[in-house]
Amino acid sequence: MYSRTMLKVRTLSNNLKMYGSTSSNFVNVSVNDKSGVAIVTMQREPVNSLNLELITQLKTALSDLERNKCRGMILTSASKSVFSAGLDIMEMYKPNQERVRNFWLSLQDLWMTLYGCSYPSVAAINGHSPAGGCLLSMSCEYRIMLPNFTIGLNETKLGIIAPSWFVATMKNTIGFRKAEMALTLGFLFTTEEALKVGLIDEVASSKEDAIAKADKFIGQFAKIPPQPRTISKLMLRSKDIETLRKTKEQDLQAFLQVVNDPKTQKGLELYLESLKQRKA
Ligand SMILES: CCCCC/C=C\CCC/C=C/CC(=O)SCCNC(=O)CCNC(=O)[C@H](O)C(C)(C)COP(=O)(O)OP(=O)(O)OC[C@H]1O[C@@H](n2cnc3c(N)ncnc32)[C@H](O)[C@@H]1OP(=O)(O)O
């Protein structure tokens, strides 16, 4: 039913080529011919960490879906155990200044595109979803997660602060009090805990079940006129999108200041080592 790559994801744009990147395909888009619902699959092994290329390709895919008036979008992962490990730490460790700037601006763009898309959006969370992975999930309208994984904004545990738009997205998803607790603790919720707190909406037994549930959620909108649907969604979401749009440069400068701080660089080095040692 879902035909692979019916909507072609454009490869890297010219401005990325100057960094010598190869145009690997980190995003697959397949569209159900009957329902018009698209499945957007992140496929950057091993953990879908969000580097500049994955972020750019996701943004392109979502914008293409908008232009093609898709009926709904399901965001998921090709991995069996990780939805997304969040931002690629290698983009922030000893960064090339022009690339890290582009990285952050592209992340801002991706968030504004996903959070404000007109079509219904569902995250089929088929693996762990910390930090930036949680942001992507929360930016969708509905979340379905598989058991025995974790999700949350764990930034404070890493000694860093989630940007204000990450915080706003969490507050809008689970409410002020629960967001305050979760953010200050850097709490990673298990699937069951996430369901209880309202961070996810349903638990699925498998990826196929998650996709079926997502299709069912999106199917409800078949009877709702699209324009009032979109306007209602944007009445709730546009304030935070506009806030970031107006403060993009300020937000970028704050990020660059943190990233370029030698203490952050030392922290990143230790964190990368700890990730590697967990395996040993
Ligand atoms: C973090 C400091 C940022 C400094 C900048 C300052 C402020 C502004 C930015 C603030 C916002 C930040 C949001 C973020 O998203 S930060 C990223 C936070 N992410 C995490 O903490 C997740 C870390 N990863 C994990 O916990 C696990 O990898 C896992 C997702 C649970 C999956 O576990 P598992 O399946 O066991 O896989 P491995 O751990 O063995 O990983 C395989 C491989 O991938 C590397 N890796 C994992 N996560 C990342 C990542 N986020 N970025 C880059 N690389 C990652 C890991 O090191 C392994 O590599 P090797 O195979 O080479 O050992």
TrEMBL record:
Superkingdom, natural source: Eukaryota
Source organism of the structure: Agrilus planipennis
GO cellular component terms, A-Z: mitochondrial matrix
Self-association state and partner proteins as the record states: Homotrimer.
High-level lineage: Eukaryota, Metazoa, Ecdysozoa, Arthropoda, Hexapoda
Protein name: Enoyl-CoA delta isomerase 1, mitochondrial
Function: Key enzyme of fatty acid beta-oxidation. Able to isomerize both 3-cis (3Z) and 3-trans (3E) double bonds into the 2-trans (2E) form in a range of enoyl-CoA species, with a preference for (3Z)-enoyl-CoAs over (3E)-enoyl-CoAs. The catalytic efficiency of this enzyme is not affected by the fatty acyl chain length.
Reactions catalysed according to its record: (3Z)-octenoyl-CoA = (2E)-octenoyl-CoA; (3Z)-dodecenoyl-CoA = (2E)-dodecenoyl-CoA; (3Z)-decenoyl-CoA = (2E)-decenoyl-CoA; (2E)-tetradecenoyl-CoA = (3Z)-tetradecenoyl-CoA
Keywords: Acetylation, Fatty acid metabolism, Isomerase, Lipid metabolism, Mitochondrion, Transit peptide
Entry annotated with the keyword Transit peptide: yes
Gene3D superfamilies hit by this protein: 2-enoyl-CoA Hydratase, Chain A, domain 1, 6.10.250.170
